[in-house]
Amino acid sequence: MAKRKDTKDLERDAERSESELPEQGELDEGAELAKGGADSDGDSSVDAASDDEAEAGEMGSARYVHAAFFAAGILSAYICAKLLLAAWNMLADWPEAVRQLPALIQYGEDERATVTLVVGAVLGVFLVFWNYRKESVRNWAGEVASELSRVTWPNKETVTNGTMVVLVATLVGTVYVALLDRFWGYLTNLVYGA
Fold first, then answer.
1. 65 and 137 in contact (C-beta within 8 Å)?
2. How far is CA 42 from CA 24, 47, 55, 71, in A?
3. Longest Cα–Cα distance in the chain
4. 168: Cβ contacts below 8 Å, ≥ 6 apart
5. Confidence band of 17 (pLDDT split at 50, 70, 90)
6. At what angle do helices 62-93 and 135-149 cross, to 10 degrees?
7. Greater confidence, 185 or 48?
8. Is pLDDT above 60 for 99?
9. Domains in the chain: how many in total?
10. pLDDT by residue (tens digit) across 52-80?
């Protein structure tokens, strides 16, 4: 009979502990509070900050790829504008070209620079978008950016120390070569008599 009473006591204790457990909804609220302290609307500033960090983290090395394409667009626009201006000025100085196409000298040199800058910008943007649409170019740029993101860049102290070592070594080398030059110049004057 003692065994039977112990079993009943155990069953009663189990029923009590089950009734004391929180319901599923209460568990979800507790988990949200533990994650970041949700306010009455269910949103939290911590969740918003972690979402921003997650979005920035998702960009990863892609932001470097986009920055590189942007820089390439600016550079290609500048180069295209300068090449077009040089070609236009060369053709404007060539009499046969002016005879065939009188519009070459219709604009002054300042106006030509403005026109070629606009045309160069359009060409630069076109070239960048054309290359960006190529899957192989994007993959290559992504791989390069991914490898560069793994590089451990030196801190300021390391760069400063390295620069000082290079400057001191250059100074010592310069002094050494200057002294050797003076010494061998002196010996040469003694031997050959100037």
1. no
2. 17, 10, 21, 42
3. 130
4. none
5. low
6. 120
7. 185
8. yes
9. 1
10. 444 445 566 778 788 888 898 899 999 98
Q: Kindly provide the b/e burial profile for residues 96-108, where b requires at least 16 CB atoms within 10 angstroms of the residue's own CB.
A: eeeeeeeebeeee
Structural domain for 97, as ranges: 63-147
Does residue 86 sit within a domain?
yes
Domain contains 7:
no
Q: Say whether pLDDT at 145 is over 90.
A: no
pLDDT tens, position by position, 104-131? 788 887 888 888 999 999 998 899 889 8
3-state DSSP assignment of residue 136: helix
Does residue 32 lie in a domain region? no
In a domain, 131, yes or no: yes
Q: How far is CA 104 from CA 22, 84, 154, in A?
A: 85, 12, 54
Q: What is the average pLDDT across 28-48?
A: 48
| Angstrom distance (rounded) from CA 22 to CA 33 | 15
What is the total residue count of the chain? 194
